[in-house]
Amino acid sequence: MDKKDFRITAKNRLKTGAKIHAKCAHYKILKIVSNLIEIFKAKKILIFMPLFYEPNLYLLAKNFSKNRIKREFLVPFMLDVSFKMVKLRRPFEIARFGVKQPPNQNTQNGLDMAIIPCIGVDGNFARIGHGKGYYDIFFSHLKTKPIVVFVSLSDNFTKAEISQKHDLVGDFYITPKKIYLKKGKYDRVLNRLNSRCGRHFSRIFNS
């Protein structure tokens, strides 16, 4: 299976799953991501406004705000072939591909962690996205790479190496039932996640 075929199959799985996923699938991911933010003490976090088959990270930002936990959440504002980071503010408008985004505003710089939607993740731990290249281009211009966390509502991991050199490589891949990460690099983080989340549903990625 090549990258194109994998993308079609995985995307169909996400769309089909979105029709039957209970809210608990979203909250399982949000709980893990929330713990990652606290473990890494991330202050500036890039999230995204979800499509119907993606985890609702907007709820995560609302929860931190509700509990008066100081974190700065940023979201993409689409440009021609990439995006810039802006503050998460209402009112939202509908941009390309039906994605919600805040009004145009000043670009924000500096980033501790990026939570990124994906169609799937391959054997290189690279993101398989929609094929537009927005995230790949944006991260290729960053001088300092943040912690990169991929998320999806279905487990679309493949051991096959189908990505290209320009595809963004992550540190974690979070699904409702499994956590993938590079073996050896974040073992202590994995132990803390298991302790905080109260279950051992993690699967270690062998790099």
Automatic annotation (TrEMBL):
Q: Which Pfam families match?
A: 5-FTHF_cyc-lig
Question: So where does ATP get bound?
Answer: 3-7, 127-135
EC top class named in words = ligase
- Sites binding substrate sit at 49, 54
Q: Which UniProt keywords apply?
A: ATP-binding, Ligase, Magnesium, Metal-binding, Nucleotide-binding
Q: What EC number is given for this enzyme?
A: 6.3.3.2
What GO biological process terms are annotated to this protein in UniProt? folic acid-containing compound biosynthetic process; tetrahydrofolate interconversion
Q: What is the residue range of the signal peptide feature? A: none
The record's SUPFAM superfamilies line, in alphabetical order, gives: NagB/RpiA/CoA transferase-like
- Top-level taxon in the UniProt lineage: Bacteria
Which family is annotated?
Belongs to the 5-formyltetrahydrofolate cyclo-ligase family.
Its cofactor is:
Mg(2+)
What is the protein name stated in its UniProt record?
Answer: 5-formyltetrahydrofolate cyclo-ligase
Which Gene Ontology molecular function entries are recorded, alphabetically? 5-formyltetrahydrofolate cyclo-ligase activity; ATP binding; metal ion binding
Enumerate the PANTHER family for this protein. 5-FORMYLTETRAHYDROFOLATE CYCLO-LIGASE (PTHR23407:SF1), ATPASE INHIBITOR/5-FORMYLTETRAHYDROFOLATE CYCLO-LIGASE (PTHR23407)
Recorded catalytic reaction(s): these are: (6S)-5-formyl-5,6,7,8-tetrahydrofolate + ATP = (6R)-5,10-methenyltetrahydrofolate + ADP + phosphate
Keyword set includes Transcription? no
